[in-house]
Recover the amino acids of this structure.
């Protein structure tokens, strides 16, 4: 019973925190630019507004177009709920496998790419083709990162990996460092952040993610925006749980430890969000075809991490 | 007498046209001038219609001198200049739409400004027609494997002016871009017909909001030339001050906006502050942020305030500290340089063929600047440099703006020193009792703005043509984007920052 409550709590927590994280990043970016910026609660208001608005559907939209926002949201939410946030060994942790998380995100993206092409507008097509290009480059890099972690921890279970990272026999490992850098690069590409994509742009010709969802409105758009927020939260949680697992409490731990876990988690998100905002302010967006170099570097780092582990298990 | 005018010796010089001569020519002379323009001996500054006539302003850059050449066309036809000189094609298409005059041999006879949505056809002709049914505009084709079209606009995702861009792309690579403009056609030239000078000046000021000072100044100078009015010295200096402030505000805005299109919002935020400071100082000085309706024929409309001068001094000293740091930030951000260097290259030959003014021309080795080349007052007495680069890419256009900002800051200093503190600001525009004509070329922030005015004996406007520099920059943008990628178009477009409103008129 307690297990169920903790797992449910985690699912709700990520859902409630996701828009706040997006709001925080936006606020931090605005402050760095010397602007006041909208309140951190603005994403909630936007979502509420979108949920209340009617849907404008293109005449050419198929049933798939209408179903996809729910599919994308469901897949992203489940994936986010699988990543340990404040505690490990939750009810779903048997399925909280890194490969499962990647597969869920991959499916969500696959459907979104389809939706981009469904209506038949040129921007949707441009966005989908660019997204597919980024995905084909990002996924191998992600897999290499997973291999590195799995070889180190001996498991792809996130709870196990986190447990291993917390254990004293980790030490300083080159492979882990390489995997961390690679994962951050993948996270930037996957979430469509600067320098790969600009989530705040109004220039339809440069968009990637925004171009795919250009035809969505009303609650469909709200679900897609919420999924995007969840995905950002997922990657920050993932980096937090795997590389900075301090404060993670097992499900059997007393309530005080659980609270401590939540506090540590919130701090990790805060730090991650601020660092992201800082990074995004200091670089310009790269040319579309430079993304392959960027993600190629991530792939190489992941590969290097894996290879080093074959040379020596302690590297 | 200039060499250019001598070569037109067979034509009839119109006495009433000031300050440059206007020559009425026959078909042969018209064709020979056109072919000299086509051979790049002369530069086309403007080509506009009139009642049963067409006028063409040409510049001989070697002297330098400007002459207006007129071809009477009682039968509604004239030999096309576009046939030998492509930059004239859009101008002739516009003449066809507005006056119904037919350019013989025009390579591209599709309508330009008239999208078939007006309730008259050839609105400026003596007898406008009811619109006739017509086929929808066909875009130029590009055929080949894997080519596809991307229609963009006229309504864009951001709040910007409307224009349609039809890309033919192969994946991300742009094979052809075709622009379609005219969505902001307001009928300014039609509204100006028979308008008193004051009303016409207000219309001119509203041609393109960001160049309101430059356009007003061009109009005012053309009217003053026609009426033979001498503007009080204080107004001359104050006008130059306004023109430089407008240039500063727009260049600050552009530098930031170009960086913002590469998602580098930091420059945008800081340049936004600088631009805002210029606008506030202008507001304090003359009571309007954009200084609209401040330049009027005869002088300047508003007495500048002392508080405004103080604010301007504060702005200058603050900007001289902050701007170099921003330039350094632009120059040292590798990710930004990676986007701007080598993107959207305009070949110098193309810039000189089209006679591109402003930063577009000067980034591609064309050094024309009306302030220097034609040295209208008070610029003859001021010391400044005209920056010129030859790379022709987005980066070069940013650097030209940066250098021009530095020059303009120095010009504002010089003007403030020499501006007479007391004296009249304007003189009345009195009708001369006969038809008179005037032409003026003024350097706006985008480039040279041309105004041609004909006044009747009551000093009402009979015909006024305002030619925005964008006429000769929009077509070059089509060439600049070729073989670049679709995603780089916004960056190129912003580095041109052509006016929709000024072009569509």
């Amino acid at each position: 019973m307690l297990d169920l409550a903790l797992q449910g709590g985690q699912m709700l927590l990520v859902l409630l925190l996701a828009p706040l994280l997006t709001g925080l990043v936006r606020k931090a970016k605005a402050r760095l630019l010397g602007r006041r910026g909208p309140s951190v609660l603005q994403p909630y208001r936007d979502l509420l507004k979108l949920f209340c608005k009617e849907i404008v559907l293109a005449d050419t939209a198929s049933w798939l177009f209408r179903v996809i926002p729910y599919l994308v949201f469901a897949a992203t939410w489940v994936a986010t709920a699988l990543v340990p946030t404040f505690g490990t060994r939750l009810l779903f942790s048997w399925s909280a496998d890194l490969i499962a998380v990647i597969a869920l995100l991959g499916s969500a993206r696959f459907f979104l790419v389809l939706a981009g092409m469904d209506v038949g507008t040129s921007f949707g097509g441009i966005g989908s083709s660019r997204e597919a290009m980024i995905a084909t480059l990002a996924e191998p890099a992600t897999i290499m990162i997973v291999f590195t972690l799995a070889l180190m921890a001996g498991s792809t279970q996130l709870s196990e990996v986190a447990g291993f990272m917390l254990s004293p026999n980790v030490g300083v490992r080159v492979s882990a460092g390489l995997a961390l850098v690679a994962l951050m690069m993948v996270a930037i590409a996957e979430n469509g952040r600067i320098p790969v994509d600009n989530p705040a742009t109004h220039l339809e010709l440069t968009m990637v993610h925004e171009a795919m969802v250009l035809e969505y409105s009303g609650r469909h758009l709200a679900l897609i925006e919420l999924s995007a927020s969840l995905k950002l939260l997922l990657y920050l949680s993932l980096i937090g749980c795997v590389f900075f697992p301090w404060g993670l409490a097992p499900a059997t731990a007393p309530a005080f430890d659980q609270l401590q876990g939540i506090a540590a988690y919130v701090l990790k998100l805060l730090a991650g969000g601020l660092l992201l905002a800082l990074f995004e302010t200091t670089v310009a967006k790269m040319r579309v075809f430079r993304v392959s170099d960027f993600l190629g570097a991530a792939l190489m780092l992941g590969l290097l991490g894996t290879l080093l582990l074959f040379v020596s298990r302690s590297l | 007498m200039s060499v250019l005018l001598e070569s037109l010796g067979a034509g009839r010089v119109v006495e009433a046209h000031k300050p440059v001569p206007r020559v009425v020519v026959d078909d042969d002379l018209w064709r020979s001038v056109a072919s000299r323009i086509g051979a790049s001996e002369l530069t086309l500054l403007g080509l506009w219609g009139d009642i049963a006539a067409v006028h063409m302003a040409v510049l001989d850059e070697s002297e330098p001198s400007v002459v207006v050449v007129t071809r009477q066309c009682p039968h509604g036809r004239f030999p096309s200049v576009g046939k030998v000189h492509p930059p004239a094609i859009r101008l002739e298409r516009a003449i066809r739409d507005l006056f119904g005059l037919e350019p013989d041999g025009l390579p591209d006879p599709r309508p330009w400004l008239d999208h078939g949505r007006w309730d008259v056809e050839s609105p400026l002709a003596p007898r406008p027609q009811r619109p006739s049914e017509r086929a929808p505009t066909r875009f130029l084709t590009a055929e080949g494997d894997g080519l596809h079209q991307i229609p963009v606009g006229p309504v864009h995702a951001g709040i910007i002016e409307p224009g349609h861009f039809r890309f033919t792309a192969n994946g991300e690579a742009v094979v052809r871009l075709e622009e379609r403009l005219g969505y902001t056609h307001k009928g300014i030239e039609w509204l100006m017909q028979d308008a008193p000078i004051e009303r016409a000046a207000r219309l001119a000021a509203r041609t393109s909001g960001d160049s309101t000072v430059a356009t007003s100044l061009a109009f005012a100078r053309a009217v003053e030339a026609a009426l033979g009015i001498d503007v009080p010295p204080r107004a001359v200096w104050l006008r130059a001050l306004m023109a430089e402030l407008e240039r500063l505000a727009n260049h600050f805005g552009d530098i930031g906006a170009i960086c913002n299109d590469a998602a580098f919002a930091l420059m945008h935020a800081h340049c936004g502050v600088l631009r805002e400071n210029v606008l506030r100082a202008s507001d304090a000085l003359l009571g309007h942020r954009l200084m609209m309706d401040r330049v009027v024929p005869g002088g300047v409309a508003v007495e500048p305030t002392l508080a405004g001068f103080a604010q301007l001094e504060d702005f200058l000293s603050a900007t001289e500290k902050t701007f170099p740091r921003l330039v350094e930030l632009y120059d040292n951000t590798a990710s930004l340089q990676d986007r701007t260097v080598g993107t959207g290259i305009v070949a110098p030959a193309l810039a000189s063929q089209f006679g591109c003014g402003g930063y577009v021309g000067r980034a591609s080795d064309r050094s024309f600047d009306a302030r220097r080349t034609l040295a209208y007052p008070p610029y003859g007495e001021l010391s400044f440099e005209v920056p010129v680069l030859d790379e022709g890419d987005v980066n070069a256009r940013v650097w030209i703006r940066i250098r021009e900002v530095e020059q303009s800051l120095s010009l504002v200093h010089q003007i403030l020193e020499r501006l007479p503190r007391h004296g009249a600001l304007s003189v009345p525009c009195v009708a001369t009792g006969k038809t008179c004509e005037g032409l003026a070329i003024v350097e706006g922030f985008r480039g040279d703005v041309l105004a041609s005015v004909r006044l009747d004996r009551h000093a009402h406007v009979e015909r006024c043509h305002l030619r925005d520099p964008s006429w000769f920059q929009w077509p070059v943008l089509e060439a600049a984007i070729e073989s670049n990628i679709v995603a780089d178009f916004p960056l190129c477009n912003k580095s041109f920052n052509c006016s929709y409103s000024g072009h569509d008129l």
Q: What stands out?
A: Chain A touches chain B through 31 residues (CB under 8 Å).
